[in-house]
Amino acid sequence: MNSVGVGLLGFGTVGSALVARLRDQGQAIGARTGLDLQTVRVAVRDPAKGRVVDLPDGVVVGDAEAVVDDPEVEVVVELMGGVEPARSLILKALAAGKPVVTANKELLARHGGELFAAAEATGVDLLFEAAVGGGIPMVRPLRESLAGEPVETVLGIVNGTTNYILTRMTEEGSGYAEALAEAQELGFAEADPTADVDGHDAAAKIAILASIAFGVQVTADDVYREGIRAVTPADLREAERSGHVVKLVAAADRVPGPVGTVAVAVRVYPALVPLNHPLASVRDSFNAVFVQGSHVGELMLYGRGAGGDPTASAVLGDLVDAAGNRRLGTAARLGSMRAARIVPVGEHRCEFMIRLLVTDRSGVLASVATAFSDHDVSIRSMLQEEPGDLDVDGTSRIVFISHEAREADVRATLTDIATIDTVINIESVIRLLPESTPLP
Ligand SMILES: NC(=O)c1ccc[n+]([C@@H]2O[C@H](COP(=O)([O-])OP(=O)(O)OC[C@H]3O[C@@H](n4cnc5c(N)ncnc54)[C@H](OP(=O)(O)O)[C@@H]3O)[C@@H](O)[C@H]2O)c1
């Protein structure tokens, strides 16, 4: 049996679950892999705090650098989160030739390029399966299994909190605030939900997935982002009526361009997902990533995208790999990440659903149709509704679905529509996901 010393940076939700798994499954892992993974040092912010998993005296310390420097620590697992000191500690470990496993999406989405280059330079592992999709293997399939596949699109529901909220709003008719409060009560949402509901978490994850899928440098700042705060029960009703469901979608497309260049369109926003699309059935706090490749066709990976246990499972898989590779004197290679052109949001193309509240007077439709045609946005369907109970007499609601159009053209259309005196309000603008091969 090969004993491998593990140094842990962070002993919170995921760190505690990992240590418990090493304790309970260490023997079985040893029998299968010949590796005896030993937790030799654990860094925390406050060593005096009570812990849910016991470790021998002296293992838990307050000095994270000392854990990285400890000669007994051969593999470093970073589970503290945040950018600093995690970034400096990982760079230090890699420079010392120690493989690193991390679940830190925020850090990778900001400084992935620098960290991947440092790992390549020293030829040691930097593994991060848990950074996207918790326990769902998403990184390794893209990085290894699909290494020879020209991936065209990565499309995912990668944030469990927002998926839970939207599922409750869709299935129970709750408003956003009510569904958020329920998610907080059940532990699916943080007290400060900003990172989830405003799409920051999903943006970090799709930046990482796009980087691996296309072999290019994409950061969280490159991702066009809209969250779910503005989604209303009326949007969900309209979605249902048109055969869709609203999901917070994170998407990355490889966009055709001149030979030798790579351009990617990356965005996070609430979108109308056709009911026969595989992503439409991803409910509650579950996550899924849908991949489309030129040769492999369509693939989907589905499961629990967060939580201590599922996430520790992904970390443990990486840890076994990193420890085994170290014993063999090898490492997983990510290859070099090329620079890419990030396609500005104005150039993105999709279909749009636009809902207007208008004065019920002749000529309204003609004026609105003129605004669409002035900007080359063609209308696929239009529906005029009777005013609802809460609407003022003499108003009506018109719902347009466009054909695929450039985002900039749709925005210009909306600017013109807003100036039409019979248009009382542009109630909602939601993008549509293209149809996929329908579920059997
Ligand atoms: N939780 C999930 O479901 C999940 C899913 C996927 C990915 N992740 C990622 O996994 C990582 C860990 O998440 P978590 O939920 O386990 O976080 P957590 O519960 O907040 O735990 C963080 C741990 O890091 C320690 N720590 C923080 N700053 C430190 C510092 N400067 N020096 C030493 N120790 C420090 C904390 O010490 P104290 O205990 O003393 O405060 C705590 O033990 C994050 O990158 C997160 O994004 C989490």
End-to-end C-alpha gap:
48 Å
* Largest sheet: number of strands, sense, barrel closure: 12 strands, mixed
Beta-strand percentage? 25-35%
Rounded mean pLDDT score: 94
Tell me the overall shape.
Answer: elongated
Quaternary class: single chain
Stretches where pLDDT is under 50 for at least 5 consecutive residues are none
**Would you report the number of β strands?**
18
| Distinct ligand kinds | NADP nicotinamide-adenine-dinucleotide phosphate
Please count the helical segments.
Answer: 13
Q: In terms of structural class, how would the helical and strand content be classed? A: alpha/beta
Instruction: Evaluate the radius of gyration.
Output: 24 Å
Q: Helix fraction?
A: 25-40%
Commentary on this structure:
Helix 1 (13-33) crosses helix 11 and helix 4 runs parallel beside helix 9 (200-214). The longest helix is centred in the first third of the chain and has 21 residues, at 13-33. The protein has 440 residues and is an alpha/beta fold. It is elongated. The protein has helices at 13-33, 64-69, 86-95, 105-122, 139-145, 160-172, 176-185, 194-197, 200-214, 233-241, 308-328, 364-374, 407-418, and strands at 2-9, 35-43, 60-61, 75-78, 100-102, 126-127, 151-157, 224-225, 244-255, 263-274, 286-293, 297-304, 341-342, 349-359, 379-385, 395-402, 405-406, 423-432. It has 13 helices and 18 strands. The strands form two sheets. Strands 7, 8, 9, 10, 11, 12, 13, 14, 15, 16, 17 and 18 form a twelve-stranded mixed β-sheet that branches. Strand 5 (100-102), helix 4 and strand 6 form a beta-alpha-beta unit. The model has no long low-confidence stretch (mean pLDDT 94).
